[in-house]
Write a structure and sequence with these properties.
The protein is built from 10 helices and 25 strands. It is globular, with a radius of gyration of 27 Å. Helix content is about 25%, strand content about 25%. The strands form 7 sheets. Strands 1, 2, 3, 4, 5, 8, 9 and 12 form an 8-stranded antiparallel sheet that branches. It has a 6-stranded antiparallel sheet with strand order 15-23-18-25-17-16. Strands 22-19-24 form a 3-stranded antiparallel sheet, with no helix packed on it. The longest helix has 15 residues. With about 425 residues, it is α+β, with helices and mostly antiparallel strands. The N and C termini lie far apart (about 65 Å).
């Protein structure tokens, strides 16, 4: 539903003539044409952007449908020539350019053009992009407005089994000595993990919302030992994803430089979830996200006071854009806050074996075997805008090694390690 006085059109649509069996397409090279069908991968669908009663159409590759110069073309920007006034005719639409000409189609080249008046070939139907049983445009709109969404049932039982096998091959299920096991660089380890990194629904939303030239920055698994968090850790810690996690000084000014997807290989419920999240607050207007590692203890406490527990079904995904403070150790030491009081009371009141010391009881709790249901695993993939990567190739480490102190500093600037 749109706001009062506005026309409600889905955020991702296929533009089809009402009288001819053809769709308006924007090719990857930016040319405009028509075809009798759209591709199954969804890439022929167009992203819509509303400006009151005006609409702009953008391809997944970033090109806007334009009437600049009085002819149909595409541009990388969205100005007056890239916006069409919407004229609704029951369930169909006509699109009028700023010069008064209407978007039109023909069964002969050049197929897509402009007409001075709105006739049958200037009227269009709009079809929403549906994938995995959900309206993708609605998901894009929601994450664009709120920052995050959760989508259920994206992974089948076969998908989950293959992914667990891939994580197992990377030793991602091993736990020992800490509250978590993280394995980085998973995208190229197995076919199933590569498929996950390029999941069709994620690609549709991320490329349209973040950048058509986005890049995969990282893909890692994380298995959390919930009992260890609640029994062994003393404090809860918070983090953000790359590139925000690498910021050495406050002032990262892009609050939407990343798109992150967290996939749930196990269910997270009230019993086994120590995960929580909160959107990074913005300082200096609307540009600079506050980051946990660059915040005082008081600021961290204030921000995390509104954190929400992350609960999810097996096979679902949590998608977010921009930095979110996240933790997988919420509830640190919570077990002992309750257990100590109860056990001491029972021990002193004679409800426990008087010959067994309190220390023996607590040691028994700590040495209890791991329970798989209390060790949930997630896979997190983070995608970045193209402008956060190096433009030039890093100099050879062998060359840098010959430049002395300048070579050492240049290695830091280009993230290249010189040889000793």
């Amino acid at each position: 539903m749109g706001r009062r006085g506005q026309i409600a059109i889905d955020r991702i649509v296929a533009l089809r003539s009402s009288v001819l069996p053809i769709y308006v397409l924007i090719r990857p090279d930016g040319t405009v044409t028509a075809a009798d069908e759209v591709s199954e991968d969804g890439n022929d669908f167009l992203t819509t952007r509303m400006f009151g009663d005006q609409i702009a159409f953008q391809s997944i590759h970033g090109d806007y449908l334009s009437t600049e110069g009085g002819a149909i073309c595409t541009r990388r920007y969205c100005s007056a020539d890239e916006r069409f006034t919407v004229e609704k005719l029951e369930t169909q639409y006509a699109f009028r350019s700023r010069t008064g000409a209407y978007l039109s189609v023909s069964d002969r080249a050049p197929f897509v053009g402009l007409a001075s008046q709105a006739g049958d070939t200037e009227v269009f139907q709009l079809f929403s992009l549906m994938m995995y049983g959900v309206n993708v445009g609605q998901q894009l709109d929601m994450i664009d407005r709120t920052g995050c969404i959760q989508i259920n049932d994206l992974l089948s039982s076969d998908d989950l089994q293959s992914l667990r096998e891939g994580v197992a091959e990377a030793n991602g299920f091993a736990l020992g000595g800490g509250h978590e096991t993280r394995v980085h660089g998973l995208a190229g380890c197995t076919q199933s993990l590569a498929d996950l990194a390029t999941h069709p629904l994620v690609m549709q939303i991320a490329r349209r919302l973040l950048s058509p030239a986005m890049q995969l920055a990282s893909m890692e698994s994380c298995r959390t030992d919930v009992d260890h968090v609640r029994k062994e850790l003393e404090v809860t810690t918070w983090n953000v994803v790359y590139p925000y996690s690498r910021a050495m000084f406050p002032g990262v000014v892009d609050p939407r430089a990343n798109f992150t997807v967290t996939w749930f290989l196990d269910q997270l419920d009230a019993e086994n979830s120590t995960w929580a999240f909160v959107k990074a607050p913005l300082s200096d207007g609307t540009c600079t996200p506050q980051l946990p590692h660059l915040s005082s203890p008081g600021e961290v406490e204030a921000v995390t006071s509104t954190a929400q527990h992350l609960l999810a079904q097996t096979g679902s995904a949590w998608l977010c854009i921009g930095p979110y403070w996240m933790s997988n150790n919420v509830g640190a030491a919570s077990f002992w806050k309750d257990y100590d009081a109860q056990t001491r009371y029972k021990h002193l009141s004679g409800q426990k074996d008087a010959g067994q010391s309190f220390r023996a009881l607590t040691d028994a709790q700590r040495s209890a075997p791991l329970k798989d249901e209390m060790c949930p695993t997630v896979i997190q993939a983070t995608y970045l805008r193209e402008n956060t990567t190096l433009r030039d190739l890093a100099p050879s480490p062998h060359v840098l090694a010959t430049y002395g102190e300048a070579g050492r500093q240049l290695a830091e600037l280009t993230m290249s390690a010189p040889t000793a």
